[in-house]
Amino acid sequence: MSEGKGNTHRFIVVEGPIGVGKTTLARRLAESFGSHLLLEGAEENPFLERFYRDPRNAALPTQMFFLFQRARQIQELRQTDLFEPVRVADFMLEKDRLFAELTLDPDELRLYEQAYKYLTLDAPQPDLVIYLQAPVEILRERIARRSRPGEHQVTTEYLRRVVEAYAAFFYHYDASPLLIVNAAGIDWVDRVEDYHLLLEQIQCTRSGRHFFNPMPTMV
């Protein structure tokens, strides 16, 4: 199957915990479909490295920055050409709330909720969400390999909580068609065969909940 052929999705979101490869996959999909790409832009957050170093004291400014960033990104998304064949993003709005509940204390969360309500965010609904899963050990290996500023301070316990929060969220998620991918068993970066297998699965997923659990490629 050639790249992009047969795609019927107008708005695809790739989600998953830190280190799972969502931005890399989103870039690859946008290239395949020749589409508009909307990235989370975590590197723009000046508080994120401080959060990795001191989560307790830096959680609130980190989340508030992300919240206002999301508001701007959603506005940009709504202003993109509606006749573009497809749009791809490496985050969904609900992710911001997920992390707020995970990192903020009750008083901070109330302040966050007030700002969230004031902004009256109304993100377009994706017509496909790709949820990438991987064990904590795999995530730690990938985070170490990419050596981004501050990420070496991410603890195993924090990663475990993030993984569990994502799993709980998507266990109940039914707002869009959902493709759950075992990202530990596939290499869409260096093996074109793996990427084409995943791309075919994406193009075939149009409703409901589906699982893609490929066996690790033998070399």
Describe the protein.
With 219 residues, the chain is α/β, with parallel strands linked by helices. The protein has a single domain (11-212), classed as Rossmann fold (3-Layer(aba) Sandwich). Helices cover 50% and strands 12% of the residues. The protein is built from eight helices and six strands, in the order E-H-E-H-H-E-H-H-E-H-H-E-H-E. The protein has helices spanning 22-33, 48-53, 55-79, 93-103, 106-119, 136-146, 156-172, 192-204; strands at 11-15, 36-38, 87-89, 128-133, 178-182, 209-212. A six-stranded parallel sheet has the order 2-3-1-4-5-6, with helices on both faces. Helix 8 (192-204) links the parallel strand 5 (178-182) and strand 6. Helix 6 packs across helix 7 (156-172). It is globular, with a radius of gyration of 17 Å. 30% of the residues are buried. This is Deoxyadenosine/deoxycytidine kinase. The active site is at 90 (proton acceptor). InterPro entries: DCK/DGK (IPR002624), Deoxyribonucleoside_kinase (IPR050566), DNK_dom (IPR031314), P-loop_NTPase (IPR027417).
Task: Give short descriptive properties of this protein.
219 residues, alpha/beta, Rossmann fold, 50% helix, six-stranded parallel sheet
